[in-house]
C-alpha cells in the first residue's frame, strides 16, 4: 500500500508595504531633540565647518557637491517642498532649534504624495547653500559630511507640530530693546497678503522706522503716518487690492515703491 504524495508547499502572499518604516520609528533612533547644533553666523546659510566641496556649489553650474546636475526648475521645486516640510509637517521630528537630520528629510520627501524625482542629502545641501533669501540654514555636526552629519532648518514661519518642538530662545537671539531693530522685512506672495497678515505686520511696524514688504516682484516701503491717506505704487498690477486691505485698518501707512527699492542687506 502506498501513501499519497504530499502536496507541494504553496507560497503565500503577504501584504507588506513597500515603503520602509520611518527612521524615527526605529527603537534605536536618535531623536534630534537630543542634539544641540551649531547655528550659522548671522547672515550665512551654512556653518563654516562644511566640507569644502559645499562652498563650490553655485546656481550657475547647477551641480551639488557630488557633481550631480539638476536644472533650475528642479531645484526650485525641491526648495518649495523643503520649505513646506520644515514649517508645517505634522509628524516630522526637529530639535529645539528647528534643525532636522538631512537623511530624515530625504525619507519624508520621498514618501510625500509627490511625483519624483526626489532630492538626496547632497541636493538638499545645494538648495540651502545657494539660496538667495536665507530661508534655510544647514549645519554640519562633525564637518565630515558623513551619515547623519548634516542638519537643516527653516529659519522661521513654523506652525503646528513643528512649532511646538521649537524653543524660541534656543533657535534665535531674543531682542528686548527696540532700538536694536530699525528695519522689519516681511516677504510674502501677493496672493497671501491678507488683512490678517497685514494687520500683524503693521502692528509690529508701529514701533519701527521702516518696513519693506515684497509685493509681487516689487519691494514696497511702508512709512508710518498719521494721515488717513494711502499712496500706492502705480506700476503694480495688483496695487488696488493692497489698498483695499490696508484702507480697512485704523492705522494707516504711506506706501512708496520704485524699481530701486530693495531689501536691506
Describe the 3D structure.
The chain folds into two domains: 149 residues, no CATH class; 80 residues, no CATH class. Helices cover 25% and strands 13% of the residues. The strands form two sheets. Strands 4-5-6-7 form a four-stranded mixed sheet, covered by helices on one side. Strands 1-3-2 form a three-stranded antiparallel sheet. The longest helix is centred in the N-terminal third of the chain and has 17 residues. The radius of gyration is 24 Å and the shape is globular. It starts with 71 loop residues before the first helix and ends in an 8-residue tail after the last strand.
How is this fold's topology laid out?
Blueprint: H1 72-88, E1 100-101, H2 102-110, H3 121-130, E2 136-140, E3 150-154, H4 160-164, H5 168-171, E4 183-187, H6 195-205, E5 210-215, E6 218-224, H7 239-247, E7 253-257
- Gross morphology is globular
State the major sheet.
4 strands, mixed
Unreliable runs? 193-219, 223-265
Strand arrangement, largest sheet?
A: 4-5-6-7
Concise structural overview:
This protein has 265 residues and is an alpha+beta fold. The chain is built from seven helices and seven strands.
List keywords for this structure.
265 residues; alpha+beta; 2 domains; 4-stranded mixed sheet; 3-stranded antiparallel sheet; 7 strands
Amino acid at each position: 500500500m502506498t501513501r499519497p504524495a504530499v502536496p507541494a508547499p504553496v507560497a503565500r502572499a503577504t501584504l507588506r508595504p513597500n515603503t520602509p518604516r520611518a527612521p524615527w520609528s526605529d527603537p534605536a533612533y536618535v531623536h534630534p531633540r537630543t542634539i544641540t547644533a551649531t547655528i550659522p553666523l548671522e547672515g550665512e546659510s551654512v556653518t563654516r565647518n562644511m566640507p569644502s566641496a559645499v562652498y563650490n556649489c553655485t546656481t550657475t553650474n547647477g551641480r551639488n557637491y557630488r557633481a550631480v546636475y539638476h536644472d533650475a526648475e528642479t531645484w526650485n521645486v525641491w526648495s518649495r517642498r523643503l520649505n513646506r516640510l520644515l514649517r508645517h509637517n505634522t509628524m516630522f521630528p526637529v530639535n529645539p532649534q528647528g534643525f532636522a537630520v538631512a537623511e530624515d528629510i530625504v525619507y519624508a520627501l520621498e514618501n510625500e504624495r509627490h511625483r519624483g524625482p526626489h532630492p538626496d542629502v547632497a541636493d538638499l545641501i545645494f538648495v540651502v547653500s545657494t539660496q538667495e533669501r536665507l530661508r534655510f540654514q544647514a549645519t554640519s555636526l562633525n564637518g565630515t559630511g558623513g551619515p547623519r552629519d548634516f542638519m537643516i532648518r527653516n529659519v522661521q514661519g513654523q506652525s503646528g507640530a513643528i512649532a511646538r518642538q521649537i524653543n524660541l530662545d534656543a533657535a534665535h537671539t531674543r531682542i528686548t530693546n527696540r532700538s536694536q531693530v530699525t528695519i522689519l522685512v516681511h516677504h510674502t506672495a501677493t496672493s497671501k497678503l491678507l488683512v490678517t497678515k497685514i494687520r500683524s505686520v503693521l502692528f509690529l511696524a508701529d514701533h519701527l522706522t521702516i518696513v519693506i514688504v515684497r509685493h509681487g516682484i516689487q519691494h514696497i516701503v511702508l512709512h508710518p503716518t498719521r494721515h488717513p491717506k494711502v499712496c500706492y505704487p502705480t506700476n503694480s498690477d495688483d496695487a488696488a487690492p493692497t489698498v483695499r486691505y490696508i484702507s480697512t485698518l485704523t492705522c494707516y501707512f504711506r506706501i512708496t515703491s520704485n524699481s530701486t527699492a530693495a531689501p536691506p542687506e
